[in-house]
Design goal:
alpha/beta, Rossmann fold, seven-stranded mixed β-sheet, about 20% strand, globular, metal-binding, peptidyl-prolyl cis-trans isomerase activity, metal ion binding, cytoplasm
Length: about 700
């Protein structure tokens, strides 16, 4: 039986000795960390890859084409359509489809030596060259399909029976078959370990992918369809689920993906705890308080189970990855513990739960493209993941051990998702990454985030998406070229989040951030040079181990010098498996609290002062929904990411771009009066009823063509 690999052991090559602040090597000479997903993922779990190739006659030609791919002067698809010698795939712009090493029926297209080389390079987005009897192949992995092999524990074990009472999981959940991929089941070891196996011997699997040009995480006919199972009845009602999300935007995006998985299996969402047949807690462990909140929220659900109710309890996200099997020992009522890398495999894991197991899925895995469509919480603004994980290993941060190494999504998949969102009427997209500037550096050939940002902005314009944002940047990798793209590309909003963390260079060194105070100020200077009116946000940690009063004052002086438009501040919280948690010079809680209060009050003042520049100005506001506190008002955000409230009918204005005159400017929101509503592209005439929608007279509200300047 596979045992769950702890995050620390999967990322570190040797035992870490206790680090103290007196040992400079703790910040400047970190131990070796694995940063390549290929070295962590068990290749035996790879079932197939979705492959494209360009067949060329000579190695020199392959090198020339590879350079064009690297420079992104011509797309891989265009090169395949114009230069490939392969008659079978040239018309499909190089797409072969899903390929497994044993697929002998593909020998005439991609011979065995090519298919076996895939296992070495089986990371989505990578391009490499290899030789066969047909010539030289330039291959690109579009996606990877892998078997889910979690650690399984029989639910009949005594330690669990003592706690559970009669509660279990719904009989209907036990009927889930095949998970998302419709996989065959192969039971081994008395049913305590399962593997998902796919057959590649059918004509359908051979033809898989022949009708699609590029992979799509939303709706790709090349991927096997997720089952549309009717919701099984429980006492005359369908199965229901509840997802509770804690933490960052990455968790919010993962929750949307898990909701999509559950709804593809026939579940319906509920907001009532007592109705849910499946409960998913998507957890955060960035600070100790967030971690303890998880156990508090598990309490009512565990009580339901002990009282005899059937409910499946799932703990997902960073606490799940961090605690793994130990979470089952602490809360034995939990059925499934799954790390963030399995967010789009929830259906497969629930199948194991339905067959009588407690499940722990925390092993390293490649991030697959979604086969099911995310159930997004907004129909105006959407998250688009572009990179997962983080390789930085800051001395205070648990993220690399909970979210794994960096894995960039292929640019083709990202652009396709943006295209699909535009077709569905979304008006704003936010690109997401734990360290977004690192996108592409794990790829072969390496790619630049600035280039992706430019391509994404162009795709937004083509797809009718008016706004593009991205988060979170890292000052160590934030380049002038990224700022240049933001300044020049129309859809990109004039808001940049630059998490400084501290204003003292020595503290930054011991945090292992890789930049200085001077680098932070230079970034701000260049942003203001290119975009004088841009808004800049940041993050600050106070009370880091060893932080002196003088070093803290350097953070305060940095805040005074920059005057940030937004700031997230927190007192340092020791986290498991991080060097700083073991240092001896921890700052007393009282001092941390005082420093946090000081920077919080100072940031409020700065944010209020920065808000005043909007008074009397007319700002473009994208309406996202109703003001939850004041009936008859709508809420939205400016391009500077300022929250704005104004009178209006949410049913008519949601998703609209409205010019609003700002009447009141507070620290964290603006209020104003609607001036005019921007019509749909190509509309030049005034739309009927607009004046009534916003409660103004026809003289006060007007529409104008989108091409006109504000």
């Amino acid at each position: 039986m596979h045992s769950a690999v702890t995050a620390a052991s999967s990322l570190e090559s040797k035992e870490e000795s206790k680090e103290t602040p007196n040992k400079k090597k703790s910040a400047t000479k970190p131990k070796w960390f694995e940063i390549k997903a290929q070295r962590l993922v068990d290749r035996d779990t790879i079932l197939a890859v979705r492959l494209s190739h360009i067949l060329l006659e000579t190695e020199a030609m392959a090198d020339t084409v590879w350079q064009k791919v690297k420079d992104q002067t011509v797309s891989f698809e265009e090169l395949a359509a114009s230069m490939s010698m392969c008659d079978v795939t040239r018309g499909e712009k190089g797409l072969v489809g899903w390929v497994a090493p044993s697929d002998a029926h593909l020998d005439e297209v991609v011979p065995p030596e090519v298919r076996h080389s895939v296992l070495v390079h089986a990371k989505p987005g990578d391009v490499w060259k290899t030789r066969s009897g047909r010539g030289w192949h330039l291959c690109r992995v579009e996606d990877v399909m892998f078997a889910v092999r979690p650690a399984l524990f029989a639910k009949g074990e005594r330690r669990r029976e003592r706690h559970l009472g009669k509660g279990g999981v719904s009989d209907a959940l036990r009927g889930l078959g095949g998970g998302v991929w419709g996989a065959e089941r192969n039971e081994e070891d008395d049913g305590r370990e399962d593997q998902l196996r796919l057959s590649f011997d059918t004509k359908e699997s051979r033809d898989m992918g022949r009708h699609a040009v590029s992979p799509s995480p939303l709706s790709d006919p090349a991927l096997p369809s997720a089952p549309s199972l009717p919701a099984a009845a429980v006492s005359g009602r369908p199965l229901r689920y509840l997802v509770e999300t804690m933490g960052c935007q990455m968790n919010k995006a993962d929750s949307e993906r898990m909701k999509g998985q559950l709804e593809s299996l026939g579940f319906e969402e509920t907001e009532k705890q007592g109705e849910a047949d499946v409960v998913v807690l998507n957890t955060c462990s960035i600070r100790d308080r967030a971690e303890q909140k998880v156990y508090s929220q598990l309490g009512p659900y565990a009580a339901r189970k002990r009282s005899g109710e059937d409910v499946a309890l799932v703990v997902a996200g960073c606490v799940a990855q961090q605690e793994a099997e130990s979470l089952l020992r602490r809360v034995p009522e939990v059925d499934l513990v799954m790390g963030p890398q399995y967010a789009n495999r929830l259906g497969d894991l629930l199948e194991h739960v339905g067959r009588g197991n407690q499940v722990v899925a925390t092993d390293p895995a490649y991030i697959m493209e979604d086969i099911t469509q995310a159930r997004r919480d907004s129909d105006v603004c959407a998250w688009v993941n572009i990179i997962y994980g983080c390789n930085e290993h800051c001395t205070y941060c648990v993220v690399p051990t909970t979210r794994g190494v960096e894995q960039s999504r292929p640019s083709e998949s990202i652009l396709q998702e943006i295209r699909e969102l535009g077709a569905r009427g979304y008006r704003e997209v936010t690109l997401l990454g734990q360290n977004i500037d690192a996108w592409g550096r794990d790829m072969n050939p390496r790619r630049r985030f600035a280039d992706l940002l430019k391509m994404a902005a162009e795709e937004c314009t083509k797809s009718g998406i008016h706004r593009l944002r991205f988060t979170t940047s890292h000052p160590r990798y934030m380049t002038d070229s990224v700022i240049d793209v933001v300044a020049d590309a129309g859809p990109l909003c004039e808001f940049l989040h630059v998490p400084m963390q501290s204003g003292d260079t020595e503290v930054l060194r011991r945090m292992r951030r890789g930049y200085s105070r001077e680098k932070c100020l230079r970034i701000v200077e260049y942003i203001k040079k290119k975009m004088p009116d841009a808004s800049i946000g940041t993050d600050v940690i106070v009370g880091f181990p060893g932080e002196t009063d003088e070093q803290f004052q350097n953070t305060v002086s940095l805040m005074e010098e920059v005057q940030f438009d937004a700031m997230m501040s927190a007192a340092y919280s020791p986290r498991p498996n991080t060097p700083a948690a073991e240092w001896d010079d921890q700052v007393p809680e009282r001092v941390k609290s005082e420093r946090l209060q000081l920077v919080t009050e100072l940031s409020k003042k700065h944010i209020f002062d920065r808000s005043q520049r909007f008074l009397g100005r007319t700002e473009e506001v994208l309406v996202e929904g109703a003001n939850p506190k004041i009936p008859g008002q709508v809420m939205g955000r400016t391009r500077h990411n300022r929250l704005v409230f104004f009178d209006g009918d949410v049913g008519a204005l949601k998703g609209e771009l409205v010019d609003v005159r700002i009447d009141t400017a507070r620290a964290f929101h603006l209020t104003g009066s609607p001036v005019r509503v921007r019509p749909a592209e190509g509309t030049t005439e005034r739309r009927l009823g607009v004046a009534d929608l916003v409660g103004k007279t026809g003289d006060d509200v007007s529409c104008y063509p989108q091409s006109e300047a504000v």
